[in-house]
Every structure is written in C-alpha cells, then in structure tokens.
Amino acid sequence: MSTVLFNTLDLALLFTIYQCLLFAFFLLVIKKGKKQSNTLLALFLLSYAAIPLDTLINFGEEFRQFAINFSANIFYVFGLAYWLEAVFLLFYVRSLIYKNFNFTKTDLLYLLPLFLYLIYETNGWYMLDMNTKQAILAGYQIEAEPAYTRFVNLFRECFRTFCGVLCLLEVRQYQKRIKENLADIEEVDLTWLKILTIGFLIIKVQAVLITLGYMTAIDLSFTIDYGVIGQLSNFMVVLLISLLIFFSLRTSKIFYGVDNPRVLSQEKPNITAEQVNHLTLYMTTQKPFLEPLLNLDSLAAKTDLPSRQLSRVINRHFQKNFFEFINGYRIDEAKKLLANEKYEKVTIIEIMAQVGFNSKATFNTFFKKLVGVTPSQYRKEQLKKHQ
User: What residues have CB less than 8 Å from 170, skipping those under 6 apart?
Assistant: First the structure.
C-alpha cells in the first residue's frame, strides 16, 4: 500500500469501514426490531470496522505516517477488535435463533483471549515510554519482530476461526430444531445466514493461511504469496458486509426462535398420562392441524400446556418432532379425503391445502414417506376398492 487516494486496496478497506459504521449507526438509532440482536450486530460491525483501520495504520504508508505523527499510542489499539468481532458475530447468531437469549457466565470465556492479549500488549507496548515507541515505529520491519509475536497472531486467527465454526454449527443446530416448533418450514429460509457464516469463516481461514504464509516466509525462508490471499479477503469482506446489510433487514420475518438446548438439558420434568391423553383427544376432536400456520406456541395455547412441556410430550412419548407430529395428522386426514368418493373430483392440490399443507413438495415427500406411494397412486388404489 503506497498511497491513500489511488490504492484500490486502501479504498476497499475505507469502504468497509464506511459500510460498517453507517449500518451500525442505523441499527442503533433508526432500525426497529429485536433490540438485542440489533445491538449485537452493531457491535460486530463496529469491531469489524476497527480491523481494516488497524491494517491501514500498520501497513498503509500514508496512514502509518499520519498515525506516527498523531500519536504512537494509537498503534495496536484497534487490533483489539480482532479478539471481539468473531465473538460478537457468534452472540448475534445465537440471539437470532434462540428465544430469550441471555448471556451466561460461561460466555465470559470467549472474552478471556482478549483479556490475555491486553495484558500481553500492555507489557509489550503501552508501558513503554513515548521515545521508545517512536524509535520502534520508525525502524519497524515485520521481519524483525520476535518469533513469539507471530505465534500470538496465529493463535488469534485460530480463535477467530473457532468462533466462525461455532456460528456455522449453531445455524445447523437451529435448522434441525426448527422442526420441533413449526409444522411448515418452507418460509424459514436460512440460505442467506449460511452464506454469511460460511463466507466469514472462509475469510478467517484465509487469515490463518496468511499468518502461516508470512511465518514460513520469515522463519523458514519458504515464500508463499500471502498478499494475494489478503487482497482477496479484503474484497470478500466488502461483499459480505453488503449482503449482511441487505439480508439482516429481513430477519424478523425469517426467524422463529427456538429454545436453547443448553437450557432445556437442565430441565427434566415428568410427562404424565393425563397430558398425553389430553393432547391426543384435542388433536382428534378439534383438528388444530388443519391450520396452515400452526406452530408449537399456538398449539400450546390451545391445549393449555406450556410450550416446553408440550414439546417434551411430543418428543418423548410420540417419538417425533413437532413437524412430524402435526404433518402426520395432516397425512391421515388427506388419506381419508383421497379415499372418499365424494372428493373424487377435488384436486390433490385442493386437498393438500384443505388439510393444512402450504407446500406441494412437503406434502408429496411426507405422504410418500409415511404411506409408501404418492397421493395420486393412493387415491387410484383406494377408489378401485369402491368399484
């Protein structure tokens, strides 16, 4: 990076800072929605904005000289964000997918690397006198850094990658658990969040490769063009932040919060025969499954059972998740209609909608799974028996 105004990479970093700061302001001041998620996303964006700023200060020639003239104390301050951004992203993802997400004491462990780094940086930089700092910055060369600083950077990037992996695992866990709360999952589109979590994970893996690249170049004299990987990462960040801004505006429509499995594992209330009989009777007499938008909370309200206890009854007694439980009743109802001569002229699509399905693909797949044949084949076989 030799100039500020005309260096494309500098412009990409500056644009990333601008994006992050502007959207963070929007989330905190203007945007309505889930306040906790908005705040965590804003903190992620603010910490991510500090990373390219740290890069510009340390490696952009014009920015670096300006920072030296301004104050040597500004160096490495923004580098603290490396230890925060991945943690904030993890908390943001959790706040989206879990009902009433709250921080626990164990969550403080994610901040432990930051505190350890603060101690390390305080002893190695902040406690030095100003003249010593100025002398170090004036003669700075990355090759002259002590070897242990490179291992600190490698640990930092591995930690960020670890948090990125946790983000992806949380999304996958949510995808599995959503069937315990919804009977219709077609509207729950996680594609964008998968793209973002995988995208940021790739960037973090690239950061590990970059660190290994300059470590091998300095310590083993084995040159890897890690600069190209770094340049690619900078442009990927611009794209991912743009996607995050666009798609996060739709999260309130996409996400139906589920219970945190770590909380549920601590609760083991008993299931009574009365609860099982009450639920079974209600399902057969009132047929709530005919409502297309039925979910766990609405069924819990109808049956006067707490949502968590209703989920336990379905999971433990019936050995099904909510998705399978409700759609099983819908398939049984569809079988009755398909076998009834009075409904011979009614299309399968109309029957599908009448029993509560919104998706033809889900109806056909689930019908074939439970019955063994397609709806049209089943109707044909049943109507032959009446001839």
Answer: 90, 93, 94, 97
**Which CATH code fits 8-261?**
1.20.1070
**Which DSSP letter does residue 201 get?**
H
pLDDT at position 252: 45
Share of the chain above pLDDT 90, in %: 36
By the 10 Å C-beta count (0-12 exposed, 13-18 middle, 19+ buried), 134 is classed as: middle
DSSP 70-99: H-GGGTTTGGGGGGTHHHHHHHHHHHHHBT
* pTM value surpassing 0.85: no
Residue ranges covered by each domain of the chain: 8-261, 267-384
In this prediction, residue 63 has a pLDDT band, given cuts at 50, 70 and 90, of: confident
How many degrees, rounded to 5, is the angle at CA 354 between CA 350 and CA 360?
60
Do residues 188 and 204 touch, judged by C-beta distance below 8 A? no
Residue 3 has pLDDT above 50, yes or no: no
Residues 6+ apart with CB under 8 A from 373: 381
Rounded-to-integer distance, Cα 62 and Cα 5, Å: 10
| pLDDT tens per residue across span 246-263 | 766 555 445 556 666 655
Picking from 298, 301, 352, the residue whose alpha carbon sits closest to that of residue 327 is 352
Instruction: Say which DSSP state 314 is in.
Output: I
> In this structure, which topology does domain 267-384 adopt according to CATH?
Arc Repressor Mutant, subunit A (1.10.10)
